[in-house]
Write a structure and sequence with these properties.
Belongs to the DapA family. With 286 residues, the chain is α/β, with parallel strands linked by helices. It has a single domain, classed as TIM Barrel, CATH 3.20.20. Helices cover 45% and strands 11% of the residues.
């Protein structure tokens, strides 16, 4: 499966544009296998409780949905978990980060296990150290994988050694990568697909690569990975600011980042030709 972490559109005054959020989801959904709301590219940490609820209330996904949960305590997580219930969605959970040094392995087990014990949604672990600056140690992952309500893992680190560990331990988790430049490598180490920022813009080549890999056409998949690598790498450098700028360029309602983040990315001059090449090949959504 190829799943995009949808951006959350704000208007130029920094207000949530819920209708644009709905329209963006509906524009992208036919091209992908599911939707992730409030992931790293969804700026979930920039939203109030009321905005999070309003943004989800207007959604009507027809394909499997996930909701990012990026909280610091179990009490906060319980509230965010309730917000996701309206969509019947899985939750993608990052480790607490502000006081990470005080948690230790046992604290991480209590946090993720506590959310899973609430039983309101299937829990997926989310390792994205570039954003959280927090670690999800491999022994903790192995222990949490035994919980009956923890069903998956998204690893956006790009560290293929971690994917190799997951495979070697035969963890009872669905494994997904969030790192487009190493997408094929992750598939080779057991990932079932990708939850990729690039799939907001151009899911087609990544769906094709997944299909080639599943069909055993390894050389063709390798050639395609080499071809699309710059697109994923440069988009990662620009993050959600560049992603929203690219969506606007394609005529999609990506909106703007919430202040103080800029409307335009310094990486745009490098990324724009790559985006135009993908559009000329019929690979983009817009």
């Amino acid at each position: 499966m190829i799943i995009p972490p949808l951006p959350t559109p704000f208007d130029q005054n920094g207000n949530l544009d819920a209708e644009a959020f709905r329209d963006l989801a509906q524009a992208i959904e036919p091209h992908v296998d599911g939707l992730l709301f409030y992931g790293s590219n969804g700026e979930g940490v920039h939203l109030t409780r009321e905005e999070r609820a309003a943004g989800l209330a207007i959604q009507t996904p027809r394909k499997p949905a996930m909701v990012g949960l990026m909280e610091e305590t179990l009490a906060q997580a319980a509230i965010a978990l309730s917000e996701s219930e309206s969509l019947g969605a899985r939750v993608l959970v990052t480790p607490p980060r502000y006081y990470e040094a005080n948690l230790g392995h046992d604290g991480l087990l209590r946090y993720f296990g506590g959310i899973a014990d609430m039983g309101k949604a299937e829990v997926w672990l989310y390792h994205v150290p570039a954003n959280t600056k927090a670690q999800l140690p491999l022994p903790v992952v192995a222990e949490l994988a035994k919980h009956p309500n923890i069903g998956g893992l998204k690893d956006s680190s790009g560290e293929l050694a971690r994917m190799a560990f997951y495979a070697s331990q035969k963890l009872a988790l669905e494994l997904y990568t969030g790192h487009a430049p190493t997408f094929l490598g992750a598939l080779g180490l057991g990932a079932k697909g990708g939850i990729l920022a690039v799939s907001n813009l151009a899911p087609k080549p990544y769906k094709q690569m997944l299909a080639l890999w599943q069909a055993g056409k390894v050389a063709e998949a390798q050639a395609l990975q080499a071809e699309v690598e710059p697109f994923g790498r440069v988009l990662a450098q620009g993050g959600f600011v560049l992603l929203k700028q690219a969506l606007r360029h394609l005529g999609l309602p990506g909106g703007y980042p919430r202040p103080p983040y800029p409307n335009e990315s310094p990486v745009w001059p490098t990324f724009k030709p790559l985006l135009e090449e993908f559009r000329a090949r019929g690979w983009t959504v817009g």
